[in-house]
Amino acid sequence: MLHSKDLNFSFSGLKTAVLYFLRDNQKISKADVGASFEQAVVDVLVKKTLEAVKIYKPKTVALGGGVAANSRLRQEFSKRLNVLLPEKKFTGDNAAMIAVAGYYRWKARKFVKNHENLRAVGNLKL
């Protein structure tokens, strides 16, 4: 992904490769493999973000979500960009946010009426 010409990234293939690598190389240090995995992901995220900044010239770059808790990623972004970083205590996984939103919808009795036609919509308003 480091050499691709686009801004896309996905780590599912890398995760699968690491899974099989560890399965087939049980004597290797899992800590070393984990550190290498982390660095590979950080390298891609930083490079793609820097490319996006060159293209789109945003006024501000902010790191958010669960990934913003990663110390290595925070360090690398801070070295290369003037990036907004939330305090680590505010970098929870978005799944927790969705669970809380669901709780409040349940508490307000806002339910889906027809479960048969239920579909995922990525930009629903809470």
Question: How are the secondary structure elements laid out?
Answer:
Blueprint: H1 12-24, H2 30-56, E1 61-62, H3 71-80, E2 83-84, H4 94-107
Helix pairs in contact: 2-3
Protein architecture, described:
- The chain is mainly alpha-helical and 126 residues long.
- Helices cover 51% and strands 3% of the residues.
- A two-stranded parallel ribbon has the order 1-2.
- The two termini are 34 Å apart.
- The model has no long low-confidence stretch (mean pLDDT 90).
Summarize the main sheet. 2 strands, parallel
Strand order of the largest sheet: 1-2
Number of helices: 4
How does the helix and strand content classify structurally?
A: mainly alpha
Strand content: under 5%
Summed up, the domain count is: 1
Task: State the share of residues found in helices, binned by percent.
Answer: 40-55%
Shape label: extended
| Order of H and E elements | HHEHEH
Radius of gyration: 19 Å
Distance between the ends: 34 Å
On the 0 to 100 scale, the average pLDDT is 90
Number of strands: 2
Q: In terms of per-residue confidence, which ranges show pLDDT below 50 for 5 or more consecutive residues?
A: none
